Amino acid sequence: MIELKSITKKYSKLTAVNEISFRVEEGEICVLIGPSGCGKTTIIKMINRMLEPTSGEIYIQGKNIEESKPEILRRNIGYVIQNIGLFPHMTVAENIGVVPRLLGWSKNSITARTEELLDLLGLDPDEYSDKYPGKLSGGEAQRIGVARALAADPPLLLMDEPFGAVDPLNRERLQIEFLKIQRKLKKTVIFVTHDLDEAIRLADTIVLLKEGSIIQKDTPENMLAHPKNRFVKNFVGTDRALKRLARFTVADYLSKAEGLCIEKNISQCIKNKRDKLQNRFLWITDRQGRLMGWLDIEAFLAQDDIEEALTRVNPAEIALGADFTLKEALARMLSQGVSAIPVIDNADRLIGEINLSTIEKITQEGYPK
Ligand SMILES: Nc1ncnc2c1ncn2[C@@H]1O[C@H](COP(=O)(O)OP(=O)(O)OP(=O)(O)O)[C@@H](O)[C@H]1O
Ligand SMILES: [Mg+2]
Known about the structure:
By secondary structure, this protein is α/β, with parallel strands linked by helices. It folds into two domains: about 250 residues, Rossmann fold, CATH 3.40.50; about 120 residues, CBS-domain (Roll), CATH 3.10.580. About 40% of the residues lie in helices and about 25% in strands. It has a six-stranded mixed sheet with strand order 6-7-8-3-9-10, with helices on both faces. It has a four-stranded antiparallel sheet with strand order 2-1-4-5, with helices on one face. Strands 11-12-13-14 form a four-stranded mixed sheet. Strand 4 and strand 5 form a beta hairpin. The longest helix has 18 residues. The protein is elongated, with a radius of gyration of 25 Å. The relative contact order is 0.10. It binds adenosine-5'-triphosphate and magnesium ion. Adenosine-5'-triphosphate binds next to strand 2 and helix 1.
């Protein structure tokens, strides 16, 4: 989809970008990361011709971008600028409509598109369309920045630290929302960040830069498991085994959960299954399979009193959905002091569990399945 071939950018003596080559395939998110001043923004600006390279070529869908007029090229590229960059004198709706207006869309189509995008980004069009950027929180403004970049449905998105100005909690929310949107829209995205956790969460490929050169280009899994040299190792940090867990979802490592319906003859079931039950605990569900709590088997056998041995739980508090990451699963285990967490579907039905031993295996192996 997009290919950079030996791109160099010099400012008199300084080489800001040095002989950079990489490709991003259609529908992929490529994350550029590296210390401040390593050339990330310069690369982004050369792709939409706000800057011209000193040497090298850039191809988008097989076409050398030098052959397109910059203003035509930019209409096909969504751009989210470092530090938000909304026009302060325009309302939210006017900001989102900038490129569609340039493209000569009708007023009605622009309004419809604006409402569609606000919905997509979780903002109520009635409430937000007529607001001015000065009245938005940092996170809201970032969402509008993303909506504006998506407005004319460009195949390529350039995002330069789009969530940089947002506090960590809101930032994580924006990342999760962005991934959801991306799964639907399948844009080709070049995303710049300083934040390694953000890169690990979002990237199909990470390009790690230092002083204008590519040090390692790899999947997040590989970069964390096999940092190429000391610089990468230091960059990804000593907790890289834990960071890697953010790449794997609970769904892929689900173990079978021993669950029992509360309406069965629990005493008999436990006695029948005794040899097979490895845990001291058994998940208990209602007739619909919805998680109700867990039963201490030993305590139950000692007293034969289900209410004594049953700990009732609120599924939303104790269980995870299958789309959580193993990093989140581990955090939950550590905070609750348990070695297995039940996993439920949207209707609170028990679908399996995730075990500490599985997570240990993944962090130790380096190569999960
Ligand atoms: N107009 C310019 N003239 C001279 N040097 C420049 C110019 N613009 C950028 N540079 C230099 O080029 C290098 C790369 O800058 P760039 O903005 O691409 O870095 P960055 O990786 O985006 O950094 P940050 O993470 O801080 O945003 C820096 O050393 C910067 O000082
Ligand atoms: Mg920058």
